[in-house]
Amino acid sequence: MTANLVSTVEATGAPTEPDLDVVRSRWKDMPTKFWIGTGIVGVYALIAVFAYWLAPYDPVEPDVVNRLASPSWSHLIGTDELGRDVLSRLLVATRIDLTVGFLGAFFPMVVGTALGAMAGYFGKWVDVLIMRVADIVQAFPAYILIIALVFAFGQGAGTILIAFTITVWVVYARLIRDEILRVRGLDYVQAARAAGVPSWRIIGRHILPNTISQTVVYFTTDVLYAILAIASFSFIGLGIPLPAPEWGSMIEGGQEFLRDNWWLTVAPGVALSILGLGFMLIGDGLDDRLSE
Amino acid sequence: MTTKVDQTISSPLLSVRDLHVTFRSKHTEVTPVDGVDLEVAPGEILGLAGESGSGKSLTLRAILGLLPRGGSAKGDLRFAGDNGELVPYDPAAVRGSGMSMVFQEPMTALNPTMRVGDLIALGAQIHQGMSKADAMTEAVDLMREVGIPVPERRARSWPHELSGGLRQRVMIATALSTKPRLLLCDEPTTALDVTVQRQILSLLRRLAEERQMSMIFVTHDLPVLASIADRIAVMYAGRVVEINDSRELFRRPKHPYTHALMHSAPVIDVTEERLVGIEGRPPDPRRFPVGCRFADRCSFVADGCEDAPYRLGEIVDSSGTACVRELDLKGVR
Amino acid sequence: MTGLLELENLSVRFNVGGSLFGRFGNSSTTLTAVDSVTFSAEPGRSIGIVGESGCGKSTLAKALIGLVSYEGVLRFDGAELKARRTKQLRRQIQMVFQDPGSSLNPALTPRQTLSELLKIHEMVPVDAIDDRCAELIDLVELPARVLDVQPRSLSGGQRQRIGLARALALEPSVLIADESVAALDVSVQASILNLISDLKEELNLTLLFISHDLAVIRHMADEVVVMYLGGMVEHGSVAEVFDDPQHPYTQALLASAPRLKRDLTDETPIIGEPPSPLDLPPGCRFAGRCPQAFDLCHTERPPLYSHDHGSAACFLLSDSNE
Fold first, then answer.
1. Residue C255 lies in a domain
2. B202 CB near a chain C CB, below 8 Å?
3. Nearest residue, CB atoms, B227 vs list C189, C264, C272
4. How many contacts does A have with B, using Cβ atoms within 8 A?
């Protein structure tokens, strides 16, 4: 037991007595892909914020006279079957998808992390109770539950968010619980307990800051999953209701015109793909950096 | 001005000259083993002592070609052939034919998916070409030789069923299964309880004698070497700073680092009023100082020490010290 | 029995195994990590607790600190102390932990770690916290700039010193050092040990020094308690126990300790390894490995017999034998 520290560090050839200088800011070490990903997502976020200002036309108002127009200078990506400007719809869809997607990952994260933290820290019956509920929720097919909720409460962002929160919290709960179990036995947590630091403070200052990194990485990919799920549900008509622009429903709407007006389907598809790429690069970059 | 000392080991088993181990990453290059010379005679136990960062474990691994990812070794490594002649060898190819290693952490060094008997037999099968049945018999014999009680039954155990001491014995038996002439031991007793440690040290000593096997025994614990090593080499900051016969070393250390090391650990049969620690820390391997690397922490430092060139290079078998001052240091015997 | 810290039949038992629903379900096995430990520590004394892995010394430390629940009686300054204790009482007994790698919260600077404790216990008025941090850092012989550095930039020795500062921040009367130097290089160990000794004198602490290393215990402690598989096997002053050990385990432990005289013969002072703590044989825990065991040893557990300079749990000491 005595010198495990010794030979492990020796074997990696790393200096065993590091400098006393303050370590350089971690941001400098982020791999390039992280920044590319952030750039992409950043652009989308800006579009989401300024969507209504950027959009040249009203995304919802039909203009049947101009229906199915080809791309031109006045309509950069043409118009759809109701004459609405595709570009405008894309821009506004960005706002809708991004917002609902973000919240659709954020709410489960908050709920799941809170419950998982309690299970991990307090253990015993609290842990048993929460984890058994998690098991039951997880055993249930998520999409069926979501469909059932949509039929019960109707389409819309609200229903989607409820559905996601109910089903996805489990992942976050398990993630944080595992991390907490790992950290709980570490000496600095024991020292805090022995010194009489109150539980809430131990969780907040000692445990969570050291266990949250995996959650953050997962969150970035989860936003993407949420957006994809929303698009999928909208595609089959259970998501964001028309006439609101949404990538999934736009893809669906353009299907029947695939031969002559292929851009109606391809454009939202490309928009979705690039955003997906951006998120993946962020998640990958974070993962690389954190596992160094 | 270097002193070339005659080889008093007439036919060494292992010769290491000018060994460097380098790690290259994207931004940096580190050389934690920086010019090590060693020799081991047949049947001799050489102790290699040093604290963390001294490079002792990496030296051992370089000899056997077991460096971690990113590491590369450079130097003149020679191992005696059957006729006693020193022959240069390729570390990657030498395993199993004359050299073997015993690791520190028995918990992780044994394959958890193999029964211990099969593990030990593997060496005999691969390197001696034995049939499975013969190899198993050999394995049981080896287990008996290393002091594992009821070896026939124990051979069917899984590693996790065994205690630390037994696991270490299994590891030793595995190392012996290839009939090595040189056994490299990397802190083999550090992770064990002191009573078990004593048993394992006895065992190793006995095996070395009975099998006429040489050993290089790496440890940070000098007193352990007092009971097992014939000669001791002390390493600091990637280099050997002192080498001498074991008794002599403890009686009269010739390097301030050895002296400090000797007096900083409490030993049961030595009474020290106050322990002598060493101020400061070992140098960062990324930025080894030019000249004497111990100068900034040395209690006997004088002018000229900081620029003193390293000169242990030529001395390998008789005593040698890298200290340029002629100091009269007190030992512990 | 009077002392600052008194242990009377202190035991720590864990439920191991069990079913799906934790305690509701089939019975599980009980692991007795600490079995009826009894001794007292006079104020200002330094007591060494020595034993090999599995002897329960670390669990004992956790019990004294109030991190695990225990049976039996623990008294501090005459008053009984339970595992669940008030913030006030927690201050009195503090510990320096073993592993420098995990003893400091990587997300906090040493200043934040120390300040938190000072604040929670209101050790000093809020505007004096920074000054007190500086004093504490100085007490452990570290430069002030260490306070604002990330723990990952610190060496093992520095981290242990900060761990010491943290323990002392609450101004305890009893300091427990649980293998506090085991993971450090030998040259660094020496400085930390010297520091602990000095601080003990300076602050008039009662020190409980836990280690597997007999030589370190001899150097640091006045009295020694030898533990084996959860139980106390010997107790006495360091000088006398080391000079004339009464219990065969203590004798074997001393004989196994590395010495500078070369004496390694084939004769090993102790054979085999300890049995599993979950499956202890009846009788003396050490009987299976004891060179002097006789019939009674395998059937009955020996109590602690007192002799003129200490006590040992061995039938060899019982009146009928002497």
1. no
2. yes
3. C264
4. 64
* A196: contact with B, CB 8 A cutoff: no
Average pLDDT over all residues of chain C: 87
Q: What is the CATH number of the domain that holds C101?
A: 3.40.50.300
Indicate whether A37 pLDDT > 70.
yes
Q: Do C273 and B227 touch (CB under 8 A)?
A: no
Q: Which residue of B has its CA nearest to C264?
A: B227
Residue C41: count of CB within 10 angstroms of its CB:
21
Q: Do B165 and C253 touch (CB under 8 A)?
A: no
The ipTM assigned to this model is 0.85
Nearest residue, CB atoms, C117 vs list A4, A18, A195:
A195
Residue C75 maps to a domain: yes
The closest alpha carbon to B295, from B320, B275, B322, belongs to: B322
Nearest alpha-carbon partner for B177 in B117, B120, B222:
B120
Q: Quickly state the pLDDT bin for A236 (edges 50, 70, 90).
A: confident
A4 → closest Cβ in B54, B56, B105: B105
> Hey, is the C-beta of B333 within 8 angstroms of any chain C C-beta?
yes
Instruction: Please indicate, yes or no, if residue C268 is contained in any of the structural domains.
Output: no
Residue pLDDT, tens place only, C60-111: 999 999 999 999 999 999 889 888 888 888 999 999 999 988 999 998 999 9
Nearest to residue A100, comparing CAs of A155, A147, A40? A155
Total structural domains within chain C: 1
- The two structure tokens encoding residue A279: 């998120």
Task: Identify the H or E element spanning B323.
Answer: none
Q: Do A191 and C163 make contact, defined as CB atoms within 8 angstroms?
A: yes
Answer yes or no: are the C-beta atoms of C172 and C203 closer than 8 Å. no
Model pTM score? 0.82
Q: Is C94 helix (H, G, I), strand (E, B) or coil?
A: strand
Q: Which tokens hold the place of C91?
A: 């201050």
Closest CA to A98 of A274, A238, A216, A217: A274
Q: Distance from C85 to chain A by nearest Cα, in Å? A: 9
Distances from the Cα of B255 to the Cαs of A191, B235, B261, in angstroms?
41, 11, 10
Touching subunits for chain C (3+ Cβ pairs under 8 A): A, B
Q: Is residue C115 part of a domain?
A: yes
Interatomic CA distance for residues B47 and B245, integer angstroms: 10
Question: Which pLDDT tens digit goes with each residue over C158-215?
Answer: 999 999 999 999 999 999 999 888 888 888 888 899 999 999 999 999 999 999 989 9
Q: How far apart are CA A187 and CA C178, in angstroms?
A: 11
Average pLDDT, chain B: 86
| Range of the structural domain that residue C198 is part of | 5-21+28-243
Give the tens place of pLDDT for each residue, A17-28: 333 333 344 566
Whether the CB of A152 is below 8 Å from some CB of chain C: the reply is: no
Our CA dihedral for C163, C165, C171, C176, rounded to 10 degrees, sits at 30
